[in-house]
Fold this sequence. Notes:
The protein has helices at about 10-25, 30-50, 70-90, 95-120, 130-135, 140-170. The chain is mostly helical. Helix 2 (about 30-50) packs antiparallel against helix 6, helix 3 packs antiparallel against helix 4 and helix 4 runs antiparallel to helix 6 (about 140-170). It starts with 8 loop residues before the first helix and ends in an 11-residue tail after the last helix.
Amino acid sequence: MNEERGLTGSTTHKLHMAEKIESRGCSAIESIFVWSACSVFMLTAFAKLVSAFQHQGYLDLPDVLFGFLSTRQVFLLGTLVELSAVFAIIWSSTTAARLAILAWVGTVFLVYRTGVAWVQTPRMPCPCLGNVGTWLHLNPQVVGLTAKILLAYLVFFSYGFLLFRKIRTWVSNGAAKPTVLDF
């Protein structure tokens, strides 16, 4: 059949992979997003983990938001959350579940980040990525901006893809125009 369409072996393979991805109920772009977010989680978890075991005085100070925990403990907790999300995504069988995990973790980090911004002076960047800026000799503002961009990427696209899936389901089922209460 593919020969009739004039397709080569390479093109046939690509079409087969695209059909396989679509049959799982996800698009290639959703899959790329999920695995790129997992890669980001692995990198930021590594940065936090290495930072948590360094001998920096600020790591023993109470966290600005959770005063009953040290900054070191919050780094370790953040590492645990990120790695748990990665493993849950790997073991999850559906893209919708993977997107929901990313949305949940992104929301947790967004709430934490908002709380830190509320309590902390605006001049101080969030130490969300540990000492990665010091290792790479980067301005702390650049590292803080990078963390914000990564968080926006995570939250925007995870919720965006989930919303797109919901709308696509309504359209394919011939449902009436959705209202705010349908979300």
